[in-house]
Design brief:
Length: 413
């Protein structure tokens, strides 16, 4: 048996942020971690609000947030907590040597792995696409054997985005790794080795130079420390920009490692492979969680619990049959349209929100679950991140934004 002030369940962006803020509040924190969260999938950038209710691009996230409906998590989190959460996040990653650029006032732009532009709120400097807007020539670097990065497609789409008055050139470099397809993580490891860096630089240096911008997939080292990015920018004497890409997302994993490093410095206890299975409830409060470890089930007592189990994607919420939503740890009420015909919009790239994505735990302004009459169900349990109802992160581009800001609010409660 182990007693903490706060037990956090789940180790995605929301769980890690909740743990950091709780520790700064002077609490003894235990984080139950299971799996890797969505870090290896998402590009590690912080979308706050990219598109409004009608699917129209939002130029200023802070103005967009003002206009979301009352049922949206941002309305429950509140602007003051959102602003403080962003400040807190930026300071945390900067203290770890991985500063993020951007603010709530205006969107930043990043270049996707297919050469289109995507708005986001906070991102690492190496991904800041707007730095290439003034370049006279765009040099797109592909890698032989790298899956899902096609230089000709990137060139064609970027030319549409940035205009035909620039020159667009492509190069494909060879890693000399043979016998298999490569992921961006493989290539990032090669580029951060002394030998690989030398080979990489030698193949692109002739094409770079003043006034040009070199666009590379997310391969400038596996660590969130900017070492390879800064060295390459200096050695090429021009702007270098990383794109987003297909999983595994190198930058998502960089962000995870940076946040875990900050957690370690604060002495937060992280229990690996601890899947929370059962809550012990007394009256309207939870006293402990039972979690399966590698060998046996352990009990974790606390005064407060933060549920950051990632909703449908990460198994925090399930639906065995239409109408049978289930929040897996506490059995909290889940709201959402679950009529079979409406649950999924089968149009792949739809201009409408997805009902399944809007489903989640119904909460009040303190982020505690409430029943249909608005009564708090468990007084010391807070719900954060993808578990929350009332938003479609994919439609509106708000995934990591809701995760960070809700975690901050719950940890401060
Ligand atoms: C392909 C993809 C691309 C995306 N791209 C972006 C992007 O570019 N920008 C952006 O802002 N957002 C993006 N998102 C959205 C973003 O990743 C998520 O909305 C956000 O990170 C959710 O964070 P979370 O911490 O709530 O959940 P998760 O990241 O899902 O983490 C939940 C964690 O809880 C663990 N867990 C579940 N059940 C238990 C249990 N019983 N006990 C212990 N642990 C448990 C899970 O294993 C998981 O590790 C993307 C999402 C996807 C799927």
């Amino acid at each position: 048996m182990s007693k903490s002030d706060v037990v956090i369940i789940g180790n995605g962006v929301a769980g890690l942020m909740a743990a950091l803020v709780s520790a700064d509040e002077g609490k003894k924190v235990t984080l139950l971690s299971y799996g890797a969260g969505t870090f290896p999938l998402n590009s590690g950038v912080i979308d706050i609000l990219g598109y409004d209710e009608q699917g129209k691009a939002v130029n200023s996230p802070i103005t967009g947030i003002d206009q979301v409906p009352d049922s949206h998590p941002y309305k429950k989190i509140g602007m003051a907590a959102i602003e403080d959460a962003i400040k807190y996040f930026k300071k945390t990653v900067a203290d770890e040597g991985f500063a993020y650029t951007g603010s709530l006032k205006e969107q930043q732009w990043l270049i996707t792995g297919i050469g289109t532009l995507k708005p986001t709120c906070l991102l690492p400097e190496s991904l800041q696409g707007s730095r290439c807007f003034d370049a006279s020539e765009i040099v797109i670097v592909g890698v032989k054997g790298l899956k899902d990065f096609y230089v000709d497609m990137v060139k064609e789409n970027l030319a549409k985005e940035l205009g035909a008055d620039k020159k667009y050139t492509t190069i494909t470099v060879d890693t000399y790794i043979t016998g298999r397809d490569l992921t961006t993580r493989d290539v990032a490891k090669w580029v951060e080795s002394d030998k690989g860096y030398g080979e990489f630089l030698a193949q692109i240096k002739g094409q770079a130079g003043a006034g040009k911008a070199v666009i590379v997939p997310q391969i400038l080292g596996t660590k969130g420390d900017y070492v390879v990015y800064k060295k390459l920018s200096k050695d090429l004497g021009c702007t270098v920009v990383e794109t987003t890409g297909m999983p595994p997302s190198v930058n998502g994993i960089r962000l995870r490692d940076v946040l875990l490093s900050a957690l370690k410095k604060k002495g937060i206890r992280v229990v690996e492979n601890a899947k929370a299975e059962k809550a012990i409830v007394k009256g309207d409060k939870v006293t402990a969680i039972e979690a399966g470890g590698e060998v046996r089930t352990q009990t974790y007592e606390a005064d407060k619990f933060i549920l950051a189990t990632g909703g449908f994607y990460s198994g925090g919420i399930t639906m065995r049959d239409f109408g049978e939503y289930k929040e897996m740890v506490f059995g909290l009420p889940v709201e959402g349209d679950c009529v079979e015909e409406r649950w999924v919009n089968k149009q792949l790239f739809s201009d409408k929100k997805q009902a399944f994505s809007m489903a989640g735990v119904r909460v009040d302004d303190s982020l505690r679950a409430v029943d249909e009459s608005g009564n708090v169900v468990l007084k010391n349990v807070y719900v954060v991140g993808r578990n929350l109802s009332g938003y479609d992160f994919c439609f509106e581009h708000s995934g990591n934004g809701v995760a960070l800001t809700s975690a901050y609010k719950a940890a401060k409660a």
